[in-house]
Amino acid sequence: MSANEPDRRDPAAEPTAVLPETAAELVQLERLQRALAESEERAKNHWELYLRAVADLDNVRKRAARDIESANRYGLEKFAAELLPVQDSLELAVQSAPQADAESLAAGQQATLQLLSKALEKLGVRRIDPLGEPFDPERHEAMLAQDSATAEPNSVLKVVQPGYELNGRLLRPARVIVSREPARA
Known about the structure:
Nucleotide Exchange Factor Grpe, Chain A, domain 2; 3-stranded antiparallel beta sheet; 52% helix; 3 helices
């Protein structure tokens, strides 16, 4: 080969030399590809977990809606069952009224009232009868303020109409007459 002749060697016939920089880049590339594959797998798992959680949440919402609907539809069932004996007692009183005397009618009314009180008690309804207690505007409704030399000022002198609570929640305030200090002459 002369100095002026071009090099005509077949490049495919010669082994390709891998430079250390290229080898390092290949190792780095393989490591990044593995990391990418692992990250994609984790992302796929997280997506499946997310979809499962969304489905579970949707099921909980649907179940809660069914429970609320059922409670609304059948919530009064216990209440109605407790009041049926009161209804029966009142019907019996009406049927026997023409041949009954005043004393037996009063006794029947007393028995019916006791049935109603027991039914309300079973349902969590409690009577508020605050006679002699300090006036509480959260639970009492003042109908009148009246001078009293014997009662503590701002206490309940008389209960006009009892109040009621349902499991600690006020249904109706007690209507009361409240004491006040007598006016000084």
